[in-house]
Each structure stands twice: as structure tokens, then as C-alpha cells.
Amino acid sequence: MSANDDRDPLFRYDDPVFADERLLEITHLPGPDRIVGRDEQMQRVADALNPAIFGSEPNHLFIFGKTGTGKSLISRSVTKRVISEAKRDDITVKYAFIDCGEQNTEASIVKTIAQLVNEPKKSGVSVPDRGLGTGDYYKRLWQAVDHCTDVTIVILDEIDMLEDDEVLRKLSRAGENRRISDSSIGIIGISNKIDFPDHLSERVKSSLSRDELVFSPYDANQLVEILEKRRDAFHDGVLSGDVIPLTAALAAQEHGDARKAIDILRNAGRIAKKQSASRVTAEHVRDAKEKTEADRFNELIEGSPQQAKAILYSLTLLTENSTEKEFPTKIIYNQYKEVARRLDFDVLSERRVQEILQEQNFLNVIQSEREGRGRGRGAHAKHRLLENPSIVKKVLLRDSRLAPLEEES
Ligand SMILES: Nc1ncnc2c1ncn2[C@@H]1O[C@H](COP(=O)(O)OP(=O)(O)OP(=O)(O)O)[C@@H](O)[C@H]1O
Questions:
Q1: Separation of CA 287 and ligand 1 centre (Å)
Q2: At what angle do helices 220-228 and 258-274 cross, to 10 degrees?
């Protein structure tokens, strides 16, 4: 009798494809021996954080680069190494990793850092989830930082999504302003937008001295190397010879994006497993690319209201049926009116549609550029999809309220 004979037959207990799928999950932090081609950037981050090892204030640092170029990986990896090195001299370094896309208000950022750092027995304070004003959360943060750590490293991912940059000024000047006396704080800000510092308020710009670092995209060879170092996520012999080079080539098409490469490889394995295939092949990789792009687009529009989806659908129809790529608001509006009627939606005003297009531009779903300058520029903007229309359409039609469009198309 085998070990699985008494298990519930409803489930599967073997995995013929993956040996350890977690190695391909986005939350997985690979060890230094699996990190490829980032020695120089790692050294620069280490230089900025170096004082923390002795309990002194690190230099603040902004890291820029396109998606999937290893910005958060290198920040987290070096921070962890700082923490363990400091520990050898009894220095406590803690870190808070915050995604400003999800938490963008001053109060929620301060609260989260305080909760991550705080040990109530040491600080004598608690940090409740709700019920305090921003000022009170700051007070508890200073208490927590002073009593529970020597150095706190705050990593702010997607820092350009911050609603108010005042939090940067307060965190960076906490020591100087005697908010904290026995501890210090270092900030690592991460962004895809290289011009982000230009948008900081003058107060923050002048008070936040920092180093800056740019991460360039990977080339296809580096992507191959990154994937090779995760090959052990699969059982021996499961990956066909062309799978890794093809995955790397597809991920390098727009820019060398390691996140996309790893996502495609993981999805290819999942598709193969679903089909009960014994090997992952080039065909699985191609299907996985489409799924990866659709999932990514889905993440971008997940929270969007149905009216916004109808507007995007209108832009998709225009894109599909024309050699043009960019369309003025007016044209999109005319198409939208027809789509809204077909869906039995209330028809929004042109001004509202313009606003929604601007929001989608902000979310990086579309790109909007004004034509000329001066007043009324909103109405004269031109918009284009940033994703392949067939993928956009597929994802939009996943929404059951938009599904009737599929039957008619
Ligand atoms: N040099 C590298 N070596 C090994 N794996 C890497 C490397 N760079 C990135 N990765 C992997 O690629 C994925 C994306 O990396 P990461 O999240 O650091 O990118 P990012 O630049 O912060 O992207 P985003 O702006 O989208 O957050 C992660 O799974 C990470 O482990």
C-alpha cells in the first residue's frame, strides 16, 4: 500500500511538473547566489545603507527603473543583509516595505511603519488599526522607533503614487527635529518614473537629501541566466530545451523585464500541469505569455468601474478597426455612446468620459497626450491603448456586464 492510498481521492498529491513552485512566486526572495547582473547596484544600495550596521543614519536613496528590473529585489535583499550584519554587534535594524499603490495616504503609511516596528512591551504603546488621527499615529511611530529599533529602513515602492509627499519630509527629518532621539530612519523610494523627483513639493525637494540610482532593463542573455537559476522550480527533465530561451526572448520584447519572464515560466508550467503534459513546451510558453499579459492588464483595471471598462472597450474597438493608434476624446466619446446604449448603461457626459480617460492614463492603462496647449486641452487630448487590443478585449469581456458585447461582435 502506498502512502497516498488513504488520502482523499478528490485531490492531487503529486506534482509531475513543479519540484518547488514557490521559487517562481513573486513574493519569493532569491538568495544572493541566484541574483544575476546587479553587482554594481547592490553595492550602491549597500553603500547608502552601510551606516545602519553601526546604528547610524543611512543615506536616503531613490531607485528608478522600468518594471521587473530588480528594484525591490535588490532593496529587500541588501536590507536583509544589513539586518543580519548589524545583529552581530547587537544593533537592531528593522524594515518596513510599503506598496504606495495600495497605501498612499500619510496616515496609513505612518500607521503601517509603526505596526511593523512596534513591540508594545518595549514601547509601552499600541498601534490600533483605526481610530487615531495622523498626528497621533506619528507620535506612536516615534515611540515605537525610539524604543524598538536602532535603525528603521523604510522602503516605499511605487513612491510616485503617494498622495501627499509630506510624509517623506517628516520621516527624513525625524532625528533633526528631535522627534526621535535614540534611533534613526533611512528611506528607499522606488519608482518607474524617472522624472518623479521633479513632481515633489519644493519643501520636500529641498529637505530630502538623497542618492539616486537607475536600474536598466535586462538583455535576453541576462534573462536566460535569471531563469536558469530558477530551473530547480521544476522536476529534472520537465523543461524542453527551447523553453527558457523562448521565455527570455518573449519577455525581452518590450524591455527586459524579469518579472514578466518569471511569470511566463510559472504560467507555462501551470498550463502544462493542467493539461497533464509531462513536459513544458514552447507552445505552453506562448500560451503563458498571453495569459501573463492578460493577468497583468486585469490587475490594472480590476478596481475600475464598469463605465470605465465600457470606455476602454470603445477605444479598443476603434484601435482594432483603424490603422491609427491614437484617438481624440470626441471620437472615443461617440463610440462610447453606442457601446453604452448596447449595454443599457446610462450615457455619461463627455466631460465625465474625459475625466475617466485621465484616470486610466494615471493608472497606466492608456497613454494620453494633449494636442497643442492652452485652455480646453483636456477635451483635445488624444488617447491610445498601451496593451494589445485583443488582450484588452478578452480581459474586459471577463466582466459579466460587458459580456453581451461579445455575443454581438
Ligand atoms: N537580477 C535578478 N536576478 C534574479 N531575479 C531577479 C533579478 N531581477 C529581478 N528578478 C526577479 O524578477 C521579479 C521582479 O523583480 P522586482 O520586483 O525586484 O522588480 P521591480 O523593478 O521592483 O519591478 P516593479 O517596478 O514592477 O515592482 C522578482 O521575482 C525578482 O525576484
A1: 22
A2: 50
